[in-house]
Write a structure and sequence with these properties.
Elements lengths: L3 H7 L10 H5 L9 H4 L10 H6 L27 E5 L2 E4 L15
Antiparallel strand pairs: 1-2
């Protein structure tokens, strides 16, 4: 499912103003949720943790002090696809996408 309205319809959730932030966010961050993941969500619950993981919240548009558009400093990355945030740890991104676009993901 790639449309926020369709996702809410499948979950029997009324699309109030707060939940419809996903419409605007769709331009910035693509929504992609497999049906098998939707099946695990609680129908009728707009605060379901799995739904909150994939659907943009209106709160995400509030600019907070210290906000950075590049929090992982990827623009300074020596090797594309390698996140080296900590001195003794690195994350190698071997694939460009996932089945689900999580709200907290590094990609």
């Amino acid at each position: 499912v790639t449309d926020p309205d369709e996702l809410l319809r499948l979950l029997n959730i009324d699309a109030d103003e707060k939940l419809l932030a996903g419409r605007s966010a769709k331009k910035l961050f693509a929504l992609r949720v497999p049906r098998s993941f939707i099946d695990r969500m609680e129908k009728g619950n707009p605060n379901d943790p799995l739904l909150r993981q994939v659907l943009t919240s209106q709160d995400e548009f509030v600019v907070a002090p210290g906000f950075s558009t590049d929090p992982l400093e990827e623009q300074h990355s020596v090797v594309p696809g390698l996140l080296h945030k900590y001195h003794n740890r690195a994350l190698l991104l071997v694939k460009g996408g996932c089945a689900v676009n999580c709200r907290y993901c590094f990609r």
